[in-house]
C-alpha cells in the first residue's frame, strides 16, 4: 500500500480526478467527476482550496460541533498532506481550486500570499460558509473557470490571478465574520490560554522547558499556531507573542517583590536561559530594570 500519493503538477491532480487540464498552473476541479477511490494520504505541491458540499453540522470544529450546513472551505499550502491510509472507498464531492506557486510569481499576489494565514490552519479550523457567502465563493470560482475556458490572450493570467486574489480577500472577510460569530467559543479558548499560562508558571516547566512559546500553547489548546495567533489578535488586539510577554512581565512583577530572590533567580524561575535577556525584556516593557522596579 502506497503511503502517500504526491501531486507535483496540476495536470497530475486533474488526471487523478478525470478533469481536463486547461492551464498547466491552475485548475477548478469538480471532484464529483472522479471515480470512487480508496482512502489515502494525499500531498499537494501547490495551493489547494476545497469547497466541500456537505452538511457541516456533523463536522467537528476543534472540540465542538459547528452548526453551519451550507458548506466549508479547507485551505492547504504547498507541501501539506491531507487524508489517511485505511481500508474503504469514497466518492469525492465538491470543488477544488488549485494553483501552482509559479502562477503568482512576479505578481502582487506572489508578494502577499504569505499574509493569508489560513493556508496554515489545521483542517478542523476550516471556514464554514453561510448560504450567501457560498454563492460569492462559487461566483469567484465561476469567473476563474470562465477565464480558463476562454481563449488565452494577454489578459488571461492577470484576470485569473486577480480573481484568485479576490477570492482570498473574501475568505479573509468571512474568517473575520467567523471569529466574531464564534465569540463565546473564542473567549473560552482565551480563558483556557490564561489557565494554561498560570499553570505553566506555577509548575517546574519553566526549568525543564524554558519560556512557553506560541507554538507550545497552540499545541496544548489543540489549535494550529496561525489560527491560534489570529484568534488571540482578534480577541485582544495583541499578537499571541505580545500576550505571552505581557503575562511574563505580570508574573515577574509579583516575583520581584520577594526580596529573598535575586533578579537572576527570578529570570530562571520564569524560564529565561540568560538573566540579561529577562532584564532587557523587562526594561523594554516596563521602562525600568527589575532592580529599579523593586526599589520603587
Write up what this structure looks like.
With 296 residues, the chain is α+β, with helices and mostly antiparallel strands. It folds into two domains: 4-181, Jelly Rolls; 184-295, Homeodomain-like (Arc Repressor Mutant, subunit A). Helix content is 49%, strand content 14%. It is built from 13 helices and twelve strands. The protein has helices spanning 10-16, 101-104, 108-112, 131-149, 156-181, 183-201, 205-208, 214-220, 225-236, 240-256, 263-270, 275-286, 290-295, and strands at residues 4-7, 26-30, 37-38, 41-44, 47-52, 60-61, 64-65, 72-76, 81-82, 89-90, 95-99, 127-128. The strands form four sheets. The chain has a five-stranded antiparallel β-sheet. It has a three-stranded mixed β-sheet with strand order 1-4-9. A hairpin with a 2-residue loop joins strand 6 and strand 7. Helix 4 (131-149) packs antiparallel against helix 5 (156-181) and helix 11 crosses helix 12. The model is unreliable at 55-69 (pLDDT under 50).
Set down the secondary structure blueprint.
Elements: E1 4-7, H1 10-16, E2 26-30, E3 37-38, E4 41-44, E5 47-52, E6 60-61, E7 64-65, E8 72-76, E9 81-82, E10 89-90, E11 95-99, H2 101-104, H3 108-112, E12 127-128, H4 131-149, H5 156-181, H6 183-201, H7 205-208, H8 214-220, H9 225-236, H10 240-256, H11 263-270, H12 275-286, H13 290-295
Parallel strand pairs: 1-4
Antiparallel strand pairs: 2-11, 3-10, 4-9, 5-8, 5-11, 6-7, 8-12
Helix pairs in contact: 4-5, 10-11, 10-12, 11-12
Amino acid at each position: 500500500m502506497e503511503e502517500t500519493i504526491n501531486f507535483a503538477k496540476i495536470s497530475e491532480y486533474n488526471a487523478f480526478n478525470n478533469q481536463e487540464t486547461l492551464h498547466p498552473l491552475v485548475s477548478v476541479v469538480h471532484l464529483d467527476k472522479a471515480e470512487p477511490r480508496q482512502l489515502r494520504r494525499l500531498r499537494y505541491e501547490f495551493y489547494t482550496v476545497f469547497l466541500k458540499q456537505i452538511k457541516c453540522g456533523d463536522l467537528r470544529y476543534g472540540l465542538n460541533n459547528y452548526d453551519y450546513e451550507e458548506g466549508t472551505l479547507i485551505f492547504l499550502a504547498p507541501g501539506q498532506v491531507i487524508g489517511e491510509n485505511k481500508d474503504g472507498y469514497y466518492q469525492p464531492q465538491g470543488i477544488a481550486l488549485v494553483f501552482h506557486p509559479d502562477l503568482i510569481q512576479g505578481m502582487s499576489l506572489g508578494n502577499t500570499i504569505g499574509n493569508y494565514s489560513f493556508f496554515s490552519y489545521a483542517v478542523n479550523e476550516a471556514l464554514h460558509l453561510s448560504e450567501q457567502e457560498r454563492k460569492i465563493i462559487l461566483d469567484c470560482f465561476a469567473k476563474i473557470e470562465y477565464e480558463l475556458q476562454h481563449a488565452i490572450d494577454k489578459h488571461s493570467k492577470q484576470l485569473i490571478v486577480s480573481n484568485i486574489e479576490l477570492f482570498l480577500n473574501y475568505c479573509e472577510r468571512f474568517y473575520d465574520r467567523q471569529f466574531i460569530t464564534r465569540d463565546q467559543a473564542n473567549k473560552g479558548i482565551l480563558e483556557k490560554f490564561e489557565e494554561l499560562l498560570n499553570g505553566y508558571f506555577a509548575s517546574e516547566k519553566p526549568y525543564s522547558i524554558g519560556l512557553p512559546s506560541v507554538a507550545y500553547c497552540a499545541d496544548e489548546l489543540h489549535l494550529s499556531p496561525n489560527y491560534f495567533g489570529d484568534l488571540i489578535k482578534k480577541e485582544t488586539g495583541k499578537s499571541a507573542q505580545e500576550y505571552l510577554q505581557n503575562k511574563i512581565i505580570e508574573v515577574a512583577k509579583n516575583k520581584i517583590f520577594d526580596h529573598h530572590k535575586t533578579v537572576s533567580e527570578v529570570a530562571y524561575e520564569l524560564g529565561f536561559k540568560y538573566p540579561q535577556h529577562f532584564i532587557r525584556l523587562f526594561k523594554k516593557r516596563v521602562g525600568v530594570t527589575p532592580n529599579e522596579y523593586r526599589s520603587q
